[in-house]
Amino acid sequence: MANIIIKNQHYPIKAILFDKDGTITELGDFWTEPTIGFMNRIVNDFPNKTYHSKEKEEIFLHAGIKGDELLPDSLATAGSMKDFANFLADYSIMDGKELYQEALAYFCKYIEQYPERIKPLGDLAYLFERLKTANLLIGLVTNDSLQTTHLILEKLEIKDFFSFVATPNEFPEKPSRVSLDAFCEQFQCKPEEVVYVGDSLGDMAYGQHTLASIAVMNHPSSQAALIASSQVQIGSVMDLLSLIECD
């Protein structure tokens, strides 16, 4: 069994669960354009209503978009696609379910058209190979949708590394522990034999159900909060290898 070093202490673990966006893949550069594009499409098409620039700016800010930037720990970056669709339902003749299908098709089409824009945050194949060599199970728990998640993993050619993939299509969204309990039951391990790696406050809350929340410090604006809510901080997901020891 592998050990992980947390605050100079060594703990045996059987598995590492990862967040996706902002943790193993770049968040802003890839998702900014389609997120803003889809919001513009919905808000601009609202019948019998023309939003002034200030009103539109406020709508976007509530969604977690400021100018051309997606804000950390916001609906746009940490919420699920269903949350996003339900938010936009207030500005559309479509309901949340219809908007979810529209958004899903829109984002899947974007991924298919621009796969080169999906940027891994490091040599993920190398990282996962090393973790597998240490006999660690690897899982993914994301608030992204099932279809877009699998599509991105396929485009990055890393899908086969994951023994477990959890999305809001099958499980309650993070920070609910239901997906963790399902993972532990499936692979016969305990929550204290698992760690979670993420980049948002929601990720850190989910990680509290495991042995440790490991924060990837990608967002300067939220670093203080991440430090306060995590047991370990790393600069990059690749730094995880420095914490792992094999028997």
From TrEMBL:
Example of a GO cellular component annotation carried by this entry: cytosol
Q: Which GO terms describe its biological process?
A: DNA repair
Residue ranges crossing the lipid bilayer per the database entry:
none
SUPFAM superfamilies tied to this protein: HAD-like
Q: Which Pfam families match?
A: Hydrolase
Which positions make up the signal peptide?
none
- One GO MF term: phosphoglycolate phosphatase activity
- Please report the name of this protein according to its UniProt entry: Haloacid dehalogenase superfamily, subfamily IA, variant 1 with third motif having Dx(3-4)D or Dx(3-4)E
